[in-house]
Amino acid sequence: MKIAVIGGCGSVGSFISLLLSNIGIDVTVVDKRQLNCELKEISVINIGKSKLEVCGYDSLKNNYFDQIIFATKAYDVKNAIEHLKENNIDAETAISLQNGLGSAEELEKIYKNVAILIIYSGLQYLDKCKSIFHGGRSIIIGCKNNCMDKLNYWERVNNNFKIKIVENIEPYRWMKLAINSAINPLSVLIWNRNGKIIDKGEAFDLAINIVKETSYVAEKLNISLLEDPIKMLIDTIRETYNNCSSTLQDIYYGRKTELDYINLAIYNKAKEIGFEAKYNYFAYIAVNLISENIKKFDYPCKES
Question: How far apart are CA 69 and CA 14, in angstroms?
Answer without folding.
Answer: 12
